[in-house]
Specification:
Elements (H helix, E strand, L loop, with lengths): L5 H9 L26 H7 L9 H10 L14 H18 L4 H8 L12 H4 L6 E2 L13 E2 L4 E2 L13 E2 L5 H7 L1
Antiparallel strand pairs: 1-2, 3-4
Length: 183
Amino acid sequence: MVMYWGFASDLWAVDPSNQTLVGGLSLLRSSSRFAFANMSRQALLVDNLTLSEPLQGGYVALSAALGPLNAVDMLYVLCPTPVLELYHGLLEAVAILTTGINASIQASYLRIPTSPLIIPAPSPWLAHPMTIIAVGGNIFCPINQVGGPFFMGYGVGFADTSFCNTFVTDNIEPSINHVLFAT
């Protein structure tokens, strides 16, 4: 939301019924009532309480490196086609083998050990559970973040479910196929 909030959000902001600083103004740059003639989109984020000012460390660095917040285009990078083809081929092969009439293959497949939850952390850090604390990782949060011991896992750095002042762990919930493909 702070990177680029999109055209739909601009339409919402200029809606005359909204109480934003640009409510009732125009999105046409040539208009004398252009919404962003004397206001930045970043200022609009402050107005609608998406951002607070003054900006904290991570936001300052991000804005200095990439440009004003709410004006940075981001792209999803797709998985390379050969990797997707390999993955789908493996899934298909496993499905054919495990849904056939060979009960021995099915039994072997179901005996592959899995764990309901894997929380990766380096062993040396786990040796000091209460002296080495996982803090930070999300540059969008101020420096007063909550941390936790590494046996709880790494804190999520970038995610749409990661909020400041909460400690959301980065964990893995592997399926049998995940374990099979990883080996």
